[in-house]
Amino acid sequence: MTYNSHKDKADEIAEAISEKYNVKAVSHYCDISSEESVEDFFNKVVSDFGGVDILINNAAYWPQAFVRDMTLEEWNKCLDVNLTGHFYFFKDFYPLSSG
Hints:
Layout: E1 2-3, H1 7-21, E2 28-29, H2 35-49, H3 72-93
Parallel strand pairs: 1-2
């Protein structure tokens, strides 16, 4: 699992998953809007697990504003997280899939 903030909460959730389902679960930092950060996360996952069976790509960002009130910086962050970041994940993780 990834987190961009709240490391303690992500670690707590990973531990709960590990205990409840008797599986290995870990959390790693990832800024989905950064190709380098996604590649680093990908390398950690492959190192930890050897591959990926399922990828749930659900990161999202929306500022507390209507589009008409957004700055260009806020708009670009929305695109970087909500579109480009998912592209980075797909590009890195798809070769590991059986599809």
